[in-house]
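queue> pop job 88
queue> type: inverse folding (structure -> sequence)
queue> payload:
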C-alpha cells in the first residue's frame, strides 16, 4: 500500500473499502496489474491459436478446445490471485510499509478484507479477458454461455479460496520469499492430480482424490458443463470442496490471521 495508507476510515465499517480502493490503485495504476494481465492475454492467445489452427476439429473437439482455454484461464487466473494474496502482508513487511498500515484507524480484519478484494480483482480482470477467446472458439457450437457461466463461477470460487490462503500464509511468514514459496508449493500439489492419467482418475479412490482437491474438483466441474454439456446443477456436488476451501481459509483470514498481523511473521525462517 502506498502513501495514502494512513487515510482515516470514516465510521470504521467501511475501512475495508478504503483499503481495497488504495490497494486497487496501487495494483492497477502502477501498471503491475496491467502487465500481469498482458502476460495472461499472450498466454491465452497462444492457446487459442493452437486450438483454432486445427482445421479438422469436429463438434466435440470444439467443446474440448473451449474447455482447454477455460482450464488454462482458471489455473493462471487463480495463480495470480494466490501470488497477490501471498504478497499482501509479507510484502508490506519487507517493504517497510506495514507499520504505517497498522497505525491506520481500521480494524485489522478489514485490512485483510481490503487486500483480499484487491487480489481477487486480478482474477475478475482475467475472467473478462477470457470471454472473447471463449466466444471465438465456441461461437459455432453454442458453447459460449454455459462455458462462461461455469468458468466464471467455478473460477471465482477457486480464486477466492487461493487468495485467502495466500493471505493467511503471508500473515504468518517471516519473509516474502517464504510466503511465495509455500504458496507455490501448495498450488503445485493441488494441480498435480489434474495431470494424472485418465485411468488413475477412475474408481472410488481416484474420484475421491479429485473431489477433495478444490482445484481438480472445480476443473472437473467445468469439463462436465462444457464438454459433456451437463446443466450447471447436475454436477454441482463437485463444487463442495472449492466452497469449503473458501469458507475455511476465508474464516481463518478474517477471524484468526488479524490477531497475528504484526511487524514480525509467525513462521520460522
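queue> result:
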Amino acid at each position: 500500500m502506498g502513501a495514502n495508507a494512513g487515510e482515516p476510515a470514516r465510521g470504521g465499517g467501511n475501512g475495508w473499502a478504503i483499503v481495497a480502493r488504495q490497494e486497487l490503485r496501487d495494483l492497477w495504476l502502477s501498471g503491475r496489474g496491467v502487465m500481469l494481465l498482458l502476460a495472461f492475454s499472450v498466454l491465452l492467445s497462444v492457446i487459442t491459436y493452437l486450438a483454432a489452427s486445427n482445421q479438422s476439429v469436429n463438434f466435440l473437439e470444439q467443446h474440448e478446445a473451449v474447455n482447454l482455454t477455460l482450464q488454462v484461464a482458471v489455473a493462471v487466473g487463480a495463480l495470480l490471485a494466490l501470488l497477490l494474496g501471498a504478497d499482501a502482508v509479507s510484502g508490506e513487511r519487507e517493504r517497510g510499509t506495514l507499520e504505517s498500515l497498522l497505525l491506520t484507524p481500521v480494524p485489522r480484519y478489514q485490512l485483510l478484507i481490503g487486500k483480499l478484494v484487491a487480489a481477487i480483482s486480478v482474477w475478475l480482470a482475467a475472467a473478462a479477458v477470457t470471454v472473447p477467446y471463449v466466444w471465438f472458439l465456441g461461437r459455432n457450437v453454442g458453447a459460449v454461455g454455459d462455458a462462461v457461466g461455469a468458468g466464471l463461477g467455478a473460477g471465482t470460487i477457486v480464486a477466492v479460496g487461493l487468495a485467502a490462503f495466500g493471505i493467511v500464509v503471508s500473515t504468518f511468514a517471516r519473509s516474502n520469499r517464504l510466503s511465495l514459496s509455500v504458496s507455490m508449493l501448495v498450488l503445485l500439489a493441488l494441480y498435480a492430480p489434474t495431470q494424472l492419467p485418465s485411468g488413475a482418475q477412475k474408481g472410488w479412490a481416484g474420484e475421491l482424490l479429485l473431489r477433495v482437491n478444490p482445484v481438480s474438483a472445480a476443473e472437473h466441474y467445468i469439463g462436465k458443463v462444457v464438454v459433456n454439456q451437463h446443466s450447471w446443477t447436475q454436477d454441482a456436488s463437485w463444487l463442495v470442496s472449492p466452497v469449503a476451501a473458501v469458507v475455511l481459509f476465508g474464516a481463518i483470514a478474517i477471524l484468526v490471521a488479524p490477531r497475528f498481523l504484526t511487524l514480525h511473521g509467525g513462521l520460522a525462517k
